[in-house]
Write a structure and sequence with these properties.
Blueprint lengths: L8 H8 L14 H13 L5 E5 L7 H18 L2 E5 L1
């Protein structure tokens, strides 16, 4: 189920820490930034449930921690239910 009221894109970009990268192409940003972008694309329509399949599978330890923290922050800020498969 998608909300009839999508999230504010500029606010979401700020929450994801991608403000300085918003006009770059995928090959111009790091793997962690690409993952944050994917999370943003998944949540921008404000779904009730977000399914995350191996959200940190191809990332190093530190970037994985950042992504998991970001997913938790998104959950707390926007109230979406998150189901994660590892």
């Amino acid at each position: 189920y998608l909300s009839k009221k999508p999230l504010d894109v500029d606010e979401l970009i700020g929450t994801l820490g991608l403000k300085e990268h918003q006009n770059k192409l995928p090959n111009q940003i790091s793997g962690g930034q690409q993952q944050r972008c994917a999370i943003g694309r998944a949540i921008v329509k404000n779904p009730d449930i977000m399914l995350c399949d191996e959200p940190t599978g191809a990332l190093d330890y530190n970037t994985s921690k950042e992504i998991l923290t970001l997913i938790e922050r998104v959950n707390q800020k926007y109230g979406n239910t998150i189901i994660m498969v590892t």
